[in-house]
Structure to design on (407 residues):
Protein backbone atom coordinates (compact mmCIF):
# COMPACT_ATOMS: atom_id res chain seq x y z
CA UNK A 1 0.00 0.00 0.00
CA UNK A 2 1.31 3.45 -0.89
CA UNK A 3 2.15 5.74 1.98
CA UNK A 4 -0.02 8.38 0.31
CA UNK A 5 -3.00 6.16 -0.50
CA UNK A 6 -5.42 7.96 1.82
CA UNK A 7 -4.57 11.47 0.64
CA UNK A 8 -7.49 13.22 -1.07
CA UNK A 9 -6.90 15.80 -3.82
CA UNK A 10 -6.79 19.36 -2.49
CA UNK A 11 -9.01 21.93 -4.21
CA UNK A 12 -7.19 23.80 -7.00
CA UNK A 13 -6.40 27.47 -6.38
CA UNK A 14 -9.30 29.30 -8.03
CA UNK A 15 -7.05 31.70 -9.97
CA UNK A 16 -4.19 29.39 -10.91
CA UNK A 17 -6.72 26.59 -11.64
CA UNK A 18 -8.43 28.84 -14.16
CA UNK A 19 -5.29 28.82 -16.34
CA UNK A 20 -5.58 25.07 -16.80
CA UNK A 21 -9.28 25.16 -17.66
CA UNK A 22 -8.47 27.90 -20.19
CA UNK A 23 -5.58 25.93 -21.70
CA UNK A 24 -7.90 22.93 -22.19
CA UNK A 25 -10.56 25.01 -24.01
CA UNK A 26 -10.38 24.38 -27.80
CA UNK A 27 -12.01 27.74 -28.70
CA UNK A 28 -9.99 29.86 -31.14
CA UNK A 29 -11.41 33.14 -29.83
CA UNK A 30 -10.92 32.38 -26.12
CA UNK A 31 -9.71 35.15 -23.82
CA UNK A 32 -8.08 34.75 -20.41
CA UNK A 33 -8.78 37.56 -17.95
CA UNK A 34 -7.87 35.63 -14.83
CA UNK A 35 -4.37 35.82 -13.45
CA UNK A 36 -2.94 39.20 -12.48
CA UNK A 37 0.03 39.52 -14.78
CA UNK A 38 0.55 42.37 -17.22
CA UNK A 39 0.27 41.65 -20.94
CA UNK A 40 1.28 43.97 -23.78
CA UNK A 41 -1.12 45.01 -26.54
CA UNK A 42 -0.31 41.79 -28.39
CA UNK A 43 -1.35 39.78 -25.33
CA UNK A 44 2.24 38.75 -24.56
CA UNK A 45 4.20 38.81 -21.28
CA UNK A 46 6.22 42.02 -21.06
CA UNK A 47 9.74 42.65 -19.85
CA UNK A 48 10.33 46.37 -19.27
CA UNK A 49 13.36 47.62 -21.25
CA UNK A 50 14.73 49.23 -18.06
CA UNK A 51 14.60 45.83 -16.37
CA UNK A 52 16.36 44.16 -19.34
CA UNK A 53 19.08 46.80 -19.13
CA UNK A 54 19.43 46.40 -15.37
CA UNK A 55 19.62 42.63 -15.75
CA UNK A 56 22.34 42.83 -18.37
CA UNK A 57 24.34 45.16 -16.11
CA UNK A 58 23.95 42.66 -13.28
CA UNK A 59 25.08 39.73 -15.44
CA UNK A 60 27.97 41.69 -16.99
CA UNK A 61 29.18 42.44 -13.48
CA UNK A 62 29.90 38.69 -13.10
CA UNK A 63 28.48 38.52 -9.58
CA UNK A 64 29.01 35.45 -7.45
CA UNK A 65 26.21 33.23 -6.18
CA UNK A 66 26.94 33.23 -2.48
CA UNK A 67 24.11 33.13 0.02
CA UNK A 68 22.40 36.38 0.88
CA UNK A 69 22.08 37.29 4.55
CA UNK A 70 18.95 35.95 6.28
CA UNK A 71 17.28 39.32 5.82
CA UNK A 72 18.66 39.69 2.30
CA UNK A 73 20.65 42.36 0.52
CA UNK A 74 21.05 45.39 2.81
CA UNK A 75 21.33 47.91 -0.04
CA UNK A 76 18.22 46.50 -1.72
CA UNK A 77 16.33 46.78 1.56
CA UNK A 78 17.46 50.37 2.07
CA UNK A 79 16.38 51.39 -1.45
CA UNK A 80 13.06 49.57 -1.03
CA UNK A 81 12.28 51.42 2.19
CA UNK A 82 13.08 54.77 0.58
CA UNK A 83 10.90 53.81 -2.38
CA UNK A 84 7.91 53.11 -0.15
CA UNK A 85 8.25 55.53 2.76
CA UNK A 86 10.05 58.33 0.89
CA UNK A 87 13.70 59.17 1.64
CA UNK A 88 12.70 61.94 4.07
CA UNK A 89 10.48 59.71 6.20
CA UNK A 90 11.21 60.36 9.89
CA UNK A 91 11.36 56.70 11.02
CA UNK A 92 13.81 55.96 8.19
CA UNK A 93 16.01 58.94 8.99
CA UNK A 94 15.97 57.93 12.63
CA UNK A 95 16.97 54.34 11.80
CA UNK A 96 13.93 52.76 13.45
CA UNK A 97 12.44 50.68 10.62
CA UNK A 98 13.03 46.93 10.97
CA UNK A 99 13.11 45.26 7.56
CA UNK A 100 14.02 42.24 5.49
CA UNK A 101 14.19 41.22 1.85
CA UNK A 102 11.56 38.52 1.33
CA UNK A 103 10.02 36.26 -1.31
CA UNK A 104 7.84 38.83 -3.09
CA UNK A 105 4.52 39.92 -1.60
CA UNK A 106 3.28 36.49 -0.56
CA UNK A 107 6.52 35.60 1.21
CA UNK A 108 6.49 38.88 3.11
CA UNK A 109 2.88 38.35 4.14
CA UNK A 110 3.71 34.87 5.41
CA UNK A 111 6.67 36.05 7.50
CA UNK A 112 4.68 38.99 8.91
CA UNK A 113 1.75 36.70 9.67
CA UNK A 114 4.13 34.47 11.64
CA UNK A 115 5.42 37.49 13.52
CA UNK A 116 1.84 38.45 14.39
CA UNK A 117 1.19 34.89 15.52
CA UNK A 118 4.27 34.92 17.78
CA UNK A 119 3.85 38.40 19.17
CA UNK A 120 1.62 37.49 22.15
CA UNK A 121 4.11 34.79 23.24
CA UNK A 122 7.07 37.12 22.75
CA UNK A 123 5.51 39.88 24.79
CA UNK A 124 3.90 37.69 27.45
CA UNK A 125 0.37 38.65 26.48
CA UNK A 126 -2.62 36.31 26.53
CA UNK A 127 -4.07 37.97 23.42
CA UNK A 128 -5.13 35.67 20.58
CA UNK A 129 -3.52 36.57 17.24
CA UNK A 130 -6.29 37.97 15.01
CA UNK A 131 -6.16 39.73 11.64
CA UNK A 132 -9.08 41.61 10.07
CA UNK A 133 -9.12 41.78 6.28
CA UNK A 134 -11.46 43.46 3.79
CA UNK A 135 -14.48 41.68 2.37
CA UNK A 136 -13.58 40.82 -0.33
CA UNK A 137 -9.80 40.58 -0.47
CA UNK A 138 -7.12 38.83 -2.55
CA UNK A 139 -7.99 35.13 -2.43
CA UNK A 140 -4.68 34.09 -0.88
CA UNK A 141 -4.71 36.51 2.08
CA UNK A 142 -6.84 34.45 4.46
CA UNK A 143 -4.96 31.23 3.67
CA UNK A 144 -1.57 32.83 4.31
CA UNK A 145 -2.63 34.11 7.73
CA UNK A 146 -4.49 30.95 8.71
CA UNK A 147 -1.49 28.80 7.78
CA UNK A 148 0.57 30.93 10.16
CA UNK A 149 -1.95 30.30 12.96
CA UNK A 150 -3.64 33.71 12.87
CA UNK A 151 -7.43 33.91 13.19
CA UNK A 152 -8.96 35.74 10.23
CA UNK A 153 -11.93 38.08 10.54
CA UNK A 154 -13.45 40.43 8.00
CA UNK A 155 -14.36 44.08 7.79
CA UNK A 156 -16.87 45.57 5.38
CA UNK A 157 -15.30 47.02 2.25
CA UNK A 158 -17.36 46.75 -0.91
CA UNK A 159 -20.82 48.28 -0.81
CA UNK A 160 -23.21 45.36 -0.69
CA UNK A 161 -25.79 47.28 -2.74
CA UNK A 162 -23.71 48.62 -5.62
CA UNK A 163 -21.12 45.77 -5.46
CA UNK A 164 -18.72 48.08 -7.29
CA UNK A 165 -18.06 50.96 -4.84
CA UNK A 166 -16.62 51.41 -1.34
CA UNK A 167 -18.75 51.14 1.79
CA UNK A 168 -16.55 53.62 3.65
CA UNK A 169 -18.83 54.10 6.65
CA UNK A 170 -19.22 50.34 7.07
CA UNK A 171 -15.47 49.86 6.80
CA UNK A 172 -14.73 52.53 9.40
CA UNK A 173 -17.37 51.23 11.78
CA UNK A 174 -16.00 47.68 11.59
CA UNK A 175 -12.42 48.82 12.09
CA UNK A 176 -13.28 50.98 15.09
CA UNK A 177 -15.14 48.01 16.52
CA UNK A 178 -12.25 45.57 15.95
CA UNK A 179 -10.92 43.70 18.96
CA UNK A 180 -8.11 45.63 20.68
CA UNK A 181 -4.66 44.33 19.89
CA UNK A 182 -5.67 42.87 16.53
CA UNK A 183 -4.01 43.46 13.17
CA UNK A 184 -5.82 45.25 10.34
CA UNK A 185 -4.79 44.37 6.80
CA UNK A 186 -5.11 47.29 4.35
CA UNK A 187 -4.34 47.36 0.63
CA UNK A 188 -1.96 50.30 0.13
CA UNK A 189 -3.35 51.04 -3.35
CA UNK A 190 -5.29 49.34 -6.17
CA UNK A 191 -7.29 47.03 -3.93
CA UNK A 192 -7.40 43.48 -5.29
CA UNK A 193 -9.92 42.22 -6.44
CA UNK A 194 -12.12 45.34 -6.54
CA UNK A 195 -9.89 48.15 -7.87
CA UNK A 196 -11.73 50.37 -5.35
CA UNK A 197 -9.62 52.45 -2.94
CA UNK A 198 -10.57 54.94 -0.23
CA UNK A 199 -10.15 58.55 -1.44
CA UNK A 200 -7.24 60.62 -0.02
CA UNK A 201 -9.72 62.32 2.35
CA UNK A 202 -11.09 58.97 3.51
CA UNK A 203 -7.56 57.66 4.14
CA UNK A 204 -6.80 60.76 6.25
CA UNK A 205 -10.03 60.37 8.18
CA UNK A 206 -9.32 56.68 8.77
CA UNK A 207 -5.78 57.36 9.96
CA UNK A 208 -7.00 59.94 12.48
CA UNK A 209 -9.80 57.67 13.71
CA UNK A 210 -7.52 54.64 14.06
CA UNK A 211 -4.97 56.64 16.06
CA UNK A 212 -7.36 56.35 18.99
CA UNK A 213 -7.35 52.54 18.82
CA UNK A 214 -4.92 49.83 19.84
CA UNK A 215 -4.75 48.17 16.42
CA UNK A 216 -1.70 47.08 14.41
CA UNK A 217 -2.04 48.39 10.85
CA UNK A 218 -0.55 46.26 8.12
CA UNK A 219 -0.25 47.61 4.55
CA UNK A 220 0.02 45.18 1.67
CA UNK A 221 1.61 47.14 -1.18
CA UNK A 222 1.63 45.01 -4.32
CA UNK A 223 1.06 47.74 -6.92
CA UNK A 224 3.21 50.79 -6.11
CA UNK A 225 3.55 52.72 -9.38
CA UNK A 226 1.32 50.31 -11.20
CA UNK A 227 -1.92 51.70 -9.80
CA UNK A 228 -1.78 55.30 -11.00
CA UNK A 229 1.45 55.23 -13.00
CA UNK A 230 3.11 57.34 -10.28
CA UNK A 231 4.96 55.46 -7.54
CA UNK A 232 4.94 58.52 -5.27
CA UNK A 233 1.18 59.00 -5.58
CA UNK A 234 0.55 55.31 -4.92
CA UNK A 235 2.47 55.53 -1.64
CA UNK A 236 0.49 58.50 -0.32
CA UNK A 237 -1.87 56.49 1.89
CA UNK A 238 0.81 54.52 3.72
CA UNK A 239 3.06 57.59 4.03
CA UNK A 240 0.27 59.63 5.60
CA UNK A 241 -0.34 56.90 8.20
CA UNK A 242 3.37 56.90 9.05
CA UNK A 243 3.36 60.70 9.30
CA UNK A 244 0.44 60.43 11.70
CA UNK A 245 2.60 58.22 13.92
CA UNK A 246 1.17 54.78 13.15
CA UNK A 247 3.78 52.03 13.61
CA UNK A 248 2.74 50.18 10.48
CA UNK A 249 3.80 46.85 9.08
CA UNK A 250 4.41 46.88 5.33
CA UNK A 251 4.87 44.27 2.60
CA UNK A 252 6.19 45.39 -0.79
CA UNK A 253 6.16 43.33 -3.97
CA UNK A 254 8.12 44.03 -7.15
CA UNK A 255 6.10 41.51 -9.16
CA UNK A 256 3.76 43.85 -11.01
CA UNK A 257 5.47 47.25 -10.99
CA UNK A 258 8.86 45.89 -12.10
CA UNK A 259 7.41 42.89 -13.95
CA UNK A 260 9.60 40.56 -11.84
CA UNK A 261 6.82 38.07 -11.04
CA UNK A 262 8.81 34.83 -11.02
CA UNK A 263 11.94 36.30 -9.46
CA UNK A 264 10.17 36.66 -6.10
CA UNK A 265 11.46 40.06 -5.05
CA UNK A 266 9.98 41.90 -2.11
CA UNK A 267 10.57 43.55 1.22
CA UNK A 268 8.81 43.68 4.55
CA UNK A 269 9.20 46.34 7.18
CA UNK A 270 7.91 47.44 10.56
CA UNK A 271 8.10 50.97 11.92
CA UNK A 272 9.49 50.81 15.46
CA UNK A 273 9.68 53.41 18.22
CA UNK A 274 13.46 53.17 18.71
CA UNK A 275 16.63 51.72 17.22
CA UNK A 276 16.72 49.18 20.08
CA UNK A 277 13.24 47.99 19.22
CA UNK A 278 14.22 47.75 15.56
CA UNK A 279 17.22 45.56 16.42
CA UNK A 280 15.07 43.25 18.57
CA UNK A 281 12.39 42.96 15.90
CA UNK A 282 14.94 42.20 13.18
CA UNK A 283 16.40 39.45 15.34
CA UNK A 284 12.89 37.97 15.63
CA UNK A 285 12.42 38.21 11.85
CA UNK A 286 15.67 36.29 11.42
CA UNK A 287 14.43 33.68 13.89
CA UNK A 288 11.32 33.18 11.72
CA UNK A 289 13.06 33.23 8.32
CA UNK A 290 16.09 31.04 9.05
CA UNK A 291 14.16 27.79 9.67
CA UNK A 292 11.56 28.68 6.99
CA UNK A 293 13.74 29.22 3.88
CA UNK A 294 17.05 30.42 5.32
CA UNK A 295 17.64 33.38 2.99
CA UNK A 296 16.02 35.02 -0.05
CA UNK A 297 17.00 34.66 -3.74
CA UNK A 298 19.54 37.19 -5.00
CA UNK A 299 19.01 37.80 -8.73
CA UNK A 300 15.81 39.83 -8.73
CA UNK A 301 16.97 41.96 -5.82
CA UNK A 302 20.13 42.83 -7.75
CA UNK A 303 17.99 43.99 -10.68
CA UNK A 304 15.79 46.19 -8.48
CA UNK A 305 18.87 47.61 -6.79
CA UNK A 306 20.34 48.51 -10.17
CA UNK A 307 17.15 50.36 -11.18
CA UNK A 308 16.38 52.17 -7.93
CA UNK A 309 20.03 53.06 -7.33
CA UNK A 310 20.68 54.64 -10.75
CA UNK A 311 18.92 57.94 -11.47
CA UNK A 312 18.83 57.45 -15.27
CA UNK A 313 17.58 53.89 -15.18
CA UNK A 314 15.09 54.77 -12.48
CA UNK A 315 13.68 57.59 -14.63
CA UNK A 316 13.39 55.15 -17.53
CA UNK A 317 11.57 52.63 -15.32
CA UNK A 318 9.21 55.37 -14.09
CA UNK A 319 8.20 56.11 -17.69
CA UNK A 320 7.76 52.45 -18.58
CA UNK A 321 5.72 51.72 -15.48
CA UNK A 322 3.50 54.67 -16.39
CA UNK A 323 3.06 53.23 -19.89
CA UNK A 324 1.76 50.00 -18.39
CA UNK A 325 -0.67 51.89 -16.15
CA UNK A 326 -1.76 54.04 -19.09
CA UNK A 327 -2.41 51.04 -21.32
CA UNK A 328 -4.59 49.54 -18.61
CA UNK A 329 -6.50 52.79 -18.20
CA UNK A 330 -7.00 52.95 -21.95
CA UNK A 331 -8.36 49.40 -21.96
CA UNK A 332 -10.81 50.37 -19.23
CA UNK A 333 -12.10 53.18 -21.45
CA UNK A 334 -12.28 50.95 -24.53
CA UNK A 335 -14.13 48.27 -22.59
CA UNK A 336 -16.66 50.79 -21.36
CA UNK A 337 -17.09 52.23 -24.88
CA UNK A 338 -17.34 48.70 -26.26
CA UNK A 339 -20.15 47.87 -23.86
CA UNK A 340 -22.09 50.92 -25.03
CA UNK A 341 -21.42 50.02 -28.66
CA UNK A 342 -22.58 46.46 -28.02
CA UNK A 343 -25.88 48.00 -26.93
CA UNK A 344 -25.56 47.92 -23.14
CA UNK A 345 -27.52 50.65 -21.38
CA UNK A 346 -26.20 49.70 -17.94
CA UNK A 347 -23.98 52.04 -15.91
CA UNK A 348 -20.42 50.76 -16.35
CA UNK A 349 -18.71 53.87 -14.91
CA UNK A 350 -17.09 51.71 -12.20
CA UNK A 351 -14.92 50.13 -14.89
CA UNK A 352 -13.16 53.44 -15.48
CA UNK A 353 -13.42 54.65 -11.85
CA UNK A 354 -11.63 51.60 -10.43
CA UNK A 355 -7.84 51.48 -10.64
CA UNK A 356 -5.04 48.96 -10.89
CA UNK A 357 -4.87 45.69 -12.71
CA UNK A 358 -8.40 44.50 -12.05
CA UNK A 359 -11.96 45.57 -12.72
CA UNK A 360 -14.71 44.26 -10.52
CA UNK A 361 -17.44 44.05 -13.10
CA UNK A 362 -20.35 43.20 -10.83
CA UNK A 363 -21.09 40.06 -12.88
CA UNK A 364 -22.58 37.25 -10.80
CA UNK A 365 -21.10 33.77 -10.55
CA UNK A 366 -23.80 32.51 -12.94
CA UNK A 367 -23.04 35.24 -15.48
CA UNK A 368 -19.31 34.50 -15.29
CA UNK A 369 -20.00 30.81 -15.90
CA UNK A 370 -22.33 31.61 -18.80
CA UNK A 371 -19.73 33.91 -20.37
CA UNK A 372 -17.19 31.10 -20.11
CA UNK A 373 -19.56 28.58 -21.71
CA UNK A 374 -20.90 30.85 -24.46
CA UNK A 375 -17.92 33.04 -25.39
CA UNK A 376 -14.86 31.35 -23.85
CA UNK A 377 -14.05 34.54 -21.93
CA UNK A 378 -12.49 33.45 -18.64
CA UNK A 379 -12.46 35.45 -15.42
CA UNK A 380 -12.74 34.51 -11.74
CA UNK A 381 -16.17 33.61 -10.37
CA UNK A 382 -16.35 36.85 -8.35
CA UNK A 383 -16.62 38.78 -11.63
CA UNK A 384 -13.08 40.15 -11.44
CA UNK A 385 -11.38 40.66 -14.78
CA UNK A 386 -7.69 41.32 -15.26
CA UNK A 387 -7.77 44.45 -17.43
CA UNK A 388 -4.15 43.72 -18.37
CA UNK A 389 -5.47 40.76 -20.40
CA UNK A 390 -7.42 43.11 -22.71
CA UNK A 391 -5.96 44.52 -25.90
CA UNK A 392 -7.14 46.25 -29.06
CA UNK A 393 -7.83 42.93 -30.75
CA UNK A 394 -10.02 41.37 -28.06
CA UNK A 395 -11.66 44.24 -26.18
CA UNK A 396 -14.72 44.53 -28.44
CA UNK A 397 -15.23 40.76 -28.30
CA UNK A 398 -15.02 40.81 -24.49
CA UNK A 399 -17.41 43.78 -24.29
CA UNK A 400 -19.94 41.90 -26.44
CA UNK A 401 -19.51 38.79 -24.27
CA UNK A 402 -20.12 40.77 -21.08
CA UNK A 403 -23.14 42.47 -22.61
CA UNK A 404 -24.55 39.12 -23.77
CA UNK A 405 -24.67 37.79 -20.19
CA UNK A 406 -25.64 41.01 -18.42
CA UNK A 407 -28.45 42.45 -20.56
N1 LIG B 1 -0.98 41.13 -2.32
C1 LIG B 1 -1.90 41.45 -3.24
C2 LIG B 1 -3.00 42.37 -2.87
C3 LIG B 1 -1.82 40.90 -4.51
O1 LIG B 1 -2.73 41.24 -5.41
C4 LIG B 1 -0.77 40.02 -4.83
C5 LIG B 1 -0.70 39.39 -6.14
O2 LIG B 1 -1.62 39.26 -6.88
C6 LIG B 1 0.17 39.74 -3.83
C7 LIG B 1 0.03 40.31 -2.59
C8 LIG B 1 1.33 38.81 -3.99
O3 LIG B 1 2.00 38.79 -5.14
P1 LIG B 1 3.49 38.25 -5.20
O4 LIG B 1 3.66 37.21 -4.15
O5 LIG B 1 3.60 37.71 -6.57
O6 LIG B 1 4.34 39.44 -4.97
Amino acid sequence: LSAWAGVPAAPADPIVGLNQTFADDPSTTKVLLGVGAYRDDAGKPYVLPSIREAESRVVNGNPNHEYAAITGDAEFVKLSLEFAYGPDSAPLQEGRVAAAQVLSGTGGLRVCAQLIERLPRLTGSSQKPVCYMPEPTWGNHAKVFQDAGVEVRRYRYLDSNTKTTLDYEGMKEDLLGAEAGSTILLHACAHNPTGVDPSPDQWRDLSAALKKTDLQLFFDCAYQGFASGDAEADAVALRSFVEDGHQILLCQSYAKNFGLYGERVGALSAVCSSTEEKAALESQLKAIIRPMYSSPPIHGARIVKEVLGDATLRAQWTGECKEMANRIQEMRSLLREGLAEAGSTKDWSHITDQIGMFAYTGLSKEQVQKMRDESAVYCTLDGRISVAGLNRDNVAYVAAAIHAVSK
User: Anything to note?
Assistant: Residues 311-341 form the longest helix (31 residues). The longest strand covers residues 97-102.
